[in-house]
Amino acid sequence: MQHLVGVCVLITNYLETELENLKNKDMKTSFKTLAVSAMTAIILSGTVFGSFASEKSVASAKVISFNDDIKRVVVMGNTKVSLVQSSTEFVSIDEGEREKVSIKQMGNTLTVSSSEETPVKVTIYVKDVYRIYASDNASVRTVGTFKQSYLQVILRDHAVAYIKAKTESMYTDLDGEAYLDLSGATDNHTIKNAGIGSLKTERFAASKTENLPVESRWAMNGAAVKKN
Description:
By secondary structure, this protein is an alpha/beta fold. The protein has helices at residues 2-21, 27-60, and strands at residues 61-65, 72-77, 79-85, 90-94, 102-106, 109-114, 120-126, 131-134, 139-143, 146-147, 150-155, 160-174, 179-193, 198-211, 225-226. A hairpin with a 2-residue loop joins β5 and β6 (109-114). The longest helix is centred in the N-terminal third of the chain and has 34 residues, at 27-60. Residues 72-210 form the Putative auto-transporter adhesin head GIN domain. This is Contig68, whole genome shotgun sequence.
């Protein structure tokens, strides 16, 4: 912040000097000079501030690159994942947390896990993932709305997920005491729940819904779906 304040003071002093020079020069020529000088100063200040912000970002987070075309994201253990749909694919994690989490890629499957007592926060940037799988005490949350043709969300144990998506097809599969909060819309929603988990759909619109035959009995009331 001190960098930005210093730059602003410098620009102000410079422009005051240039305005004073207008009294002693041809107005037209001086105005052009002042305009160019002001634009240059603004561009330079933006560059300085941008560089400072970039330095801070790089210093506080560890960016991990992997092969493109990730289609499945698997989250296990005590891991808290934020999923971001992006044109580039990579993983971002706080520098001090890197040794607390395992990040592996096999083919187009990216697996993130942690056995720490305190949840480890990880941000994953993907282009077009079609399956999100979470188990144990994992937590997954989408940032913004995921827009794609189809998406599968599979939760096990005590996993929790908050998914906002706009798709043509959505498949959700819950087991154990998993919890899924859906928002957005789809043309076709296929549901399976083999445990005592719950599915919240009050902010999710589906043109067609199909409940797969399982032992649990569903009650689609627009607010939550639970086993009776």
